[in-house]
UniProtKB/TrEMBL annotation:
Its cofactor is [4Fe-4S] cluster; Mo-bis(molybdopterin guanine dinucleotide). Residues 1-61 form the 4Fe-4S Mo/W bis-MGD-type domain. GO terms for molecular function: 4 iron, 4 sulfur cluster binding; metal ion binding; molybdopterin cofactor binding; oxidoreductase activity. This is Nitrate reductase. It comes from Pantoea piersonii. Pfam families: Fer2_BFD, Molybdop_Fe4S4, Molybdopterin, Molydop_binding. SUPFAM superfamilies: ADC-like, Formate dehydrogenase/DMSO reductase, domains 1-3. Signal peptide: none annotated. Belongs to the prokaryotic molybdopterin-containing oxidoreductase family. NasA/NapA/NarB subfamily. PANTHER family: NADPH-FE(3+) OXIDOREDUCTASE SUBUNIT ALPHA, RESPIRATORY NITRATE REDUCTASE. One of its GO terms (cellular component) is oxidoreductase complex. GO terms for biological process: cellular respiration; nitrate assimilation. Keywords: 4Fe-4S, Iron, Iron-sulfur, Metal-binding, Molybdenum, Nitrate assimilation, Oxidoreductase.
Length: 866
């Protein structure tokens, strides 16, 4: 059975065998058989515990029917009293297109308000504004095949090696085949993606507008304007005028970059015929993210570097169906099928749907939506496929808003998330492998996600849950589908409805698919219509754009440098992703293999910045902003700029006591897109001093109390927590650990060390190791004891010591595919392996998904004392 990976926007094809084994689908054009470690571990997420299997109302399990009835009755009561504007939907780029279409139709077409927004507001909103302003349509012109043909690839604000790993591997392969290809990475941090770069520009955060304005000016000064492009452009004169002050010197100053390095980039851009710029959250999640997008688009348009093979401005989408959400109008400021809120468009939609009403003005965007919830203006919110209590900025305010909101409906696949904790009504949704529909990836390619596993409990598809509530609200006829293919046909027909080529998104060629043909649908890139019956790889080769006059538009970029830091909060905190976790960890966090690479929330910073604040590598620190605080473990990273921090966005209350980054991040937004500047928050940091630190191994997921800090990392057979507390570790253990009826084995050291094993019927139930500083242990030994207890007293004694009589621990796992740790890699290097390829032969590391290759290289180049 072939399906599509549910994680990132690369949109890899996945083959699932009858026994559940997951491999890359060699026939899928997005990945040609490759998978990254998250995709390869999909099989391990399928039988995860913690699923939401049954509906709940006010904390009580009820039948799904009763929950749907409650949802409809309570929504109706709020609408009758306060009008449709008091209701909102907050959706997700992880919904299938069919689900998303239904959510949007219900809100905008039948409830009649436009308060449906999505987590794509935090992700792609600035890119949407950029493309619409430049091209007159939200249309990404490029395709992955361009990777193989570019002369220069620019990665701007993208750590694709970790976040779009299969796309990045295609770049690696392209550079191997054509060593003349150049790669430039624009990122304040030296990330894993810099591994491929010929040039890394560690710019000042938020200065991308200046960098690309400088490029535009350089193009004008160096005779690099494509004169054949000029008749197809508006706004050239004023945009060039606005860019004129951005000389090389001024741009380099603004970006805090070396002039020669910046000039090298400008020369490469100017001198390369085929330039592909890939960008992601470093560009979009900024207070002027939309302008940064247009600054990139300006440079490509003016130099004519688009619409050809190997060329173009390519915004990478984050989520598997971020693009699909844009197509169906998931954003509050768009209608379905790429339509806006003009009277003509609203009328057209109402005609097509035959609906009683259509929203006539844009609704609330994500940040504003939760503010309206907090003020009590929005009284009901239905959250689907996203976890805003973790992922929204000013998280404490979002949590307060949800706590105060009279009606919170949450559809999710997991029972316990930071958001489901606030639900009045919980609806169990089908997850990956169980649900059926389509997604659109970064290159506009529509692929099928197919069901191959039976529905667990009473879980249902998201579209079905929405349609059921719509029917109970009295909109039966318009929501009467029996099969997702029917929804797809409606969506495809709408895209072609009264569309004489004015709307880029047109898949009218798929509007007649039978259910069987929809089921078999092969991956295809939109548009799919009479002109492009087989789909279309690249847009704008004909230089016809979607503004009314057919031209594209250059836009002056204000390029303001905003610096939120102050005396009280002098450091700038950046946030983003790590290689093996997906967002709020609801699925990846439960897979032991994916917890091996990085198993704790951390705060990375330059050693000099750390030392100046009394921070020690491997110790805990507390980071504080105007809005909240978090704890993480200090990581020295000489690839960070001075006075900046980086913290992963993933950890939340299910996995740690107090490590939610978005508790700190402020909701400063780009005025044009409403996208928050999630990458730039002013903070201060200080060491967190505690009486003791330790490790607790237990069988259940239960959260401990009475601590300053804990973080949980599932292992196979047990849950492992890192702890820190005040007072005395043995006192804490006696007061807090439930060991009644168990046999205890304890040891107390002179220097405040304390160890405890608890046994029941010969089975290890709990292991606790504490000391003033985090003790070093043989984790593999302890994990193994939970699967099979040691055979003899010597083994139990070694277990209490936390160390095998002999032998070494694996160290930090570097290659998650084959479970190869730092210790083995160091040994192999000592024995003569001098390249990643040699390590691959000796240990297999790096030979599957390749995501660990940058780290292997780093280990090869750094001495073992590091
Ligand atoms: N492993 C993994 N992969 C994922 C995801 C995941 O959760 N885990 N999520 C998916 C989703 S939804 C998304 S949106 C993508 C995100 O993919 P990316 O955008 O590649 O990932 P991030 O880590 O959020 O941020 C990218 C980089 O932006 C840099 N940056 C910060 N500030 C600036 C700046 O001012 N200018 C520039 N030029 N760069 C800056 C950061 O240092 C960081 O390295 O990843 C997708 N893929
Ligand atoms: N500080 C900071 N914050 C960020 C970011 C950042 O870089 N820095 N990045 C932002 C970006 S780009 C994004 S995209 C967001 C992501 O943030 P979220 O969307 O909040 O994160 P997820 O963990 O992907 O949430 C998905 C939820 O849907 C559930 N789910 C999974 N499958 C299904 C399904 O089929 N149906 C339903 N109904 N539910 C399902 C999951 O269990 C989970 O609870 O975070 C944003 N927040
Ligand atoms: S690159 Fe993205 S789509 Fe492909 S397997 Fe990895 S997470 Fe899935
Ligand atoms: Mo995203």
């Amino acid at each position: 059975m072939n399906t599509t990976c549910p994680y990132c926007g690369v949109g890899c094809g996945v083959s699932v065998r009858a026994d559940g084994a997951v491999t890359g689908d060699a026939s899928h054009p997005a990945n040609l058989g490759r998978l990254c470690v998250k995709g390869a571990a999909l099989g391990e997420t399928l039988h995860a515990s913690g699923r939401l299997l049954w509906a709940q109302v006010d904390g009580e399990r009820v039948s799904l029917d009763a929950a749907l009835e409650s949802a409809a009755v309570r929504l109706r009561a709020i609408i009758d009293r306060h009008g449709p504007e008091a209701v909102a939907i907050y959706a997700s780029g992880q919904l299938l297109t069919e689900d998303y279409y239904v959510a949007n139709k219900l809100m905008k077409g039948y409830l009649g308000a436009a308060n449906i927004d999505t987590n794509s507001r935090l992700c792609m909103a600035s890119a949407v504004v950029g493309y619409k302003r430049a091209f007159g349509a939200d249309a990404v012109p490029c395709c992955y095949e361009d990777f193989a043909e570019a002369d220069l690839v620019v990665l701007a604000g993208s750590n694709a090696a970790w976040t779009h790993p299969v796309a990045y591997q295609r770049l690696v392969q392209a550079k191997q085949q054509r060593p003349a290809m150049r790669v430039v990475v624009i990122d304040p941090r030296r990330t894993a993606s810099v591994d491929l770069a010929d040039l890394h520009l560690p710019l000042r955060p938020g200065s991308d507008g200046a960098l690309f304005s400088g490029l535009l000016n350089w193009l004008a000064q160096h005779d690099a304007i494509d004169s054949e492009m000029l008749p197809h452009l508006n706004g050239v004169a004023e945009t060039l005028e606005a860019a004129r002050p951005w000389t090389l010197a001024r741009a380099a100053d603004a970006c805090a970059l070396d002039r020669d390095q910046l000039a090298q980039f400008y020369q490469l851009f100017t001198g390369s015929d085929r330039v592909l710029t890939l960008w992601c959250m470093g560009i979009n999640q900024s207070a002027s993210g939309s302008d940064h997008n247009n600054a990139i688009l300006n440079a490509h348009l003016l130099s004519g570097k688009l619409g050809r093979a190997g060329c173009g401005p390519f915004s990478l989408t984050g989520q598997p169906n971020a693009m699909g959400g844009r197509e169906v109008g998931g954003l509050a400021n768009q209608l379905a099928a790429h339509m806006g809120f003009s009277d003509a468009e609203c009328d057209r939609l109402q005609r097509f749907w035959g609906s009683p009403t259509v929203a006539r003005r844009p609704g609330l965007t994500a940040v504003a939506l939760f503010e309206a919830v907090a003020r009590g203006e929005v009284k009901a919110v239905w959250i689907l496929g996203t976890n805003p209590a973790v992922s929204m900025p000013e998280g404490n305010r979002v949590a307060q808003a949800l706590a105060a909101c009279p009606l919170v409906i949450v559809s999710d696949v997991m029972a316990h998330t930071d958001t489901t904790a606030f639900a009045d009504i919980l609806l169990p949704a089908l997850g990956w492998g169980e649900k059926n529909g389509t997604v659109t990836n970064s290159e506009r390619r529509i692929s099928r996600q197919r069901a191959f596993a039976p529905p667990p409990g009473e879980a249902k598809p998201d579209w079905w849950l929405l349609a059921q509530v719509a029917q109970r609200l009295g909109f039966g006829d318009a929501f009467g589908w029996q099969h997702p293919a029917e929804i797809f046909r409606e969506h495809a027909a709408l895209s072609g409805f009264e569309n004489q080529g004015q709307r880029a998104f047109d898949i009218s060629g798929l509007a007649q698919l039978s259910n069987e043909a929809w089921d078999r649908l092969k991956p295809v890139q939109w548009p799919v219509n009479a002109r492009f019956p087989q789909g279309c790889a690249r847009l704008f080769g004909d230089r016809r754009f979607f503004h009314a006059d057919g031209k594209a538009r250059l836009l002056p970029c204000a390029a303001p440098l905003d610096d939120p830091t102050s005396e009280a909060y002098p450091l700038l905190m950046n946030s983003g992703r790590i290689r093996d976790q997906w967002h709020t960890m609801t699925r990846t966090g439960n897979v032991p293999r994916l917890m091996q690479h990085i198993d704790e929330p951390f705060i990375a910073l330059h050693p000099a910045t750390a030392r100046s604040r009394g921070l020690v590598s491997g110790e805990l620190a507390r980071v504080q902003s105007t809005h909240g605080w978090m704890i993480g473990r200090v990581r020295f990273d000489s690839g960070m700029r001075l006075n900046e921090l980086f913290a992963p966005m993933h950890w939340n209350r299910q996995f740690a006591l107090q490590s939610n980054v978005d508790a700190l991040v402020t909701a400063r937004c780009c005025p044009a897109s409403g996208q928050p500047a999630l990458k730039q928050t002013a903070v201060r940091i200080q060491p967190l001093r505690t009486g003791w630190q330790g490790w607790l191994w237990q069988r259940e997921v239960a959260a401990p109390s009475g601590l300053r800090y804990w973080a949980r990392a599932p292992q196979s057979g047990a849950q492992r927590l890192t702890l820190a507390g005040d007072g005395n570790a043995s006192d804490w253990a006696q007061a807090q650990l439930a060991t009644q009826g168990m046999q205890l084995q304890q040891a107390q050291g002179a220097a405040g060390e304390y160890r405890l094993l608890a046994w029941r019927a010969g089975e290890l139930q709990l292991a606790f190791y504490a000391a003033p500083r985090l003790p070093l242990l043989d984790h593999e030994l302890i994990a193994a004891a939970f699967r099979a207890p040691p055979a003899d007293a010597a083994g139990r004694f070694a277990l209490l010591a936390g160390r095998a009589a002999q032998g070494n621990s694996a160290g930090r796992i570097i290659c998650s595919c084959f479970g190869v740790g730092e210790t083995a890699i160091r040994q192999a290097v000592a024995q003569g392996c001098d390249s990643p390829a040699a390590l691959g032969v000796a240990l297999k590391c790096g030979t599957s998904c390749g995501s660990c290759l940058p780290e292997l290289k780093l280990l090869l180049s750094t001495p073992a004392t590091a």
